[in-house]
Specification:
Length: about 60
């Protein structure tokens, strides 16, 4: 199995097991974990650390 797929699966399982935290899609990257800064340059989204999800503060 690809390492990125395994990591995504691990994060998904952790989120499902977390009943006290509410997660929402990151508003900076739109949920993909990366931000495009120029036509050929992508950077990891820092607010969500590349996960695409952030804790809901509400």
């Amino acid at each position: 199995m690809n390492l990125s797929i395994a990591k995504t699966k691990e994060i998904s399982e952790n989120l499902e097991n977390s009943s006290t935290l509410n997660w929402i899609t990151c508003s900076n990257c739109g949920g993909n974990g990366y931000m495009k800064t120029s036509p050929n340059c992508y950077h990891t989204c820092l607010p969500c650390l590349g996960r695409g999800l952030v804790e809901d503060d509400r």
